[in-house]
């Protein structure tokens, strides 16, 4: 796999060039089961904290740090379990002026989630393709400012998989992080850290309605392909298909409320089978690394229906 130091001038020319396309069709709601576990796939070793969701190969579990193998939680922040609009959810609190986990005051929360024991064993044993899912609700009247981070899948080689964010430049071929973001006015996007290769840049640069390739930070992919409403539950599903070593046959697909909004193929994730999917990265904060990203008011968001499964 090519590293950042060997890239052609492609990224130098493209990393701040937006790609645009036509307006996106408004999203429609489907069943929660389909929203979390899109049809057309067979699932195994799965888990879900969603109430009343029954799917083959998926086991209901509690929304619990111990059950979901939560590790490396950011100190000084809480993710209390609350009841919110009919769901059991983790609550993110964003004090006015909060941004970035290193800022003051702190807001949101952060940790890595391995999933249920059975799921964690399956993915870290080398599962080729997985689905992750959750529901998110921003409080009514939420003020978006410039944007903030949302959960997504992550992986890599051992401990090198952790911290694949925040402008990381070293060992980028040993990790990947596929979180989402909200941007101004609730616009959604895939915010990815993948190995910095010309192949990945080329594959991602073609994705509309707007994509910005920033090699210093994560790539902003398909910004505005959906919009988060305030005061309503929205369900996210993310499919990750690992590439073979040294091959550009990886894929990432995003569904919002059961509607496929992003489907990128031809990606390079790894140059060794030691690099594997490890779980979900929950990193929930306003930012950006500067105070102009900060939450304008005291406000909250909630995360429920946390799910994952191996696709077989």
TrEMBL record:
UniProt domain Polysaccharide lyase: residue ranges: 84-306
Record-linked PANTHER family: DISAGGREGATASE RELATED REPEAT PROTEIN, PTHR40124
Keyword field contains rRNA processing: no
Signal peptide interval: 1-22
Pfam families reported for this sequence: Polysacc_lyase_14
Keywords linked to the UniProt accession: Signal
Ranges annotated as spanning the membrane: none
InterPro entries (alphabetical): Polysacc_lyase_14
Species: Rickenella mellea
Protein's name in the database: Polysaccharide lyase 14 domain-containing protein
The keyword Signal is annotated on this UniProt entry: yes
């Amino acid at each position: 796999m090519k590293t950042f130091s060997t890239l052609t001038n492609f990224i130098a020319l493209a990393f701040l060039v937006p790609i645009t396309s036509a307006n996106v069709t408004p999203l429609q709601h489907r069943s929660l089961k389909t929203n979390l576990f899109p049809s057309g796939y067979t699932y195994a070793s799965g888990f879900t904290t969603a109430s009343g969701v029954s799917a083959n190969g998926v086991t209901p579990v509690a929304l619990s740090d111990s059950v979901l193998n939560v590790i490396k939680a950011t100190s000084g922040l809480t993710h209390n379990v609350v009841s919110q609009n009919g769901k059991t959810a983790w609550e993110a609190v964003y004090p006015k002026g909060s941004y970035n986990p290193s800022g003051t005051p702190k807001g949101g929360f952060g940790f890595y989630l391995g999933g249920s024991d059975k799921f964690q064993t399956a993915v870290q044993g080398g599962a080729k393709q997985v689905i992750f899912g959750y529901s998110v609700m921003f409080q009514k009247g939420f003020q978006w400012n410039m944007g903030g981070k949302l959960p997504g899948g992550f992986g890599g080689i051992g401990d090198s998989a952790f911290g694949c964010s925040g402008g990381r430049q070293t060992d980028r071929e040993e990790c990947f992080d596929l979180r989402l973001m909200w941007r101004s006015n609730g616009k959604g996007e895939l915010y990815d850290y993948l190995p910095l290769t010309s192949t990945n840049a080329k594959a991602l640069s073609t994705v509309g309605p707007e994509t910005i390739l920033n090699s210093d930070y994560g790539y902003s992919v398909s910004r505005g392909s959906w919009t988060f409403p305030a005061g309503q539950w929205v369900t996210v599903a993310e499919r990750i298909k690992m590439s073979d070593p040294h091959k550009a046959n990886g894929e990432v697909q995003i569904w919002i409320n059961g509607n496929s909004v992003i489907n990128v193929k031809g990606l390079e994730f790894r140059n060794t089978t030691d690099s594997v999917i490890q779980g979900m990265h929950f990193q929930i904060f306003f930012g950006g690394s500067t105070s102009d990203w900060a939450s304008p008011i005291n406000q909250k968001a909630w995360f429920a229906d946390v799910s994952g499964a191996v696709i077989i």
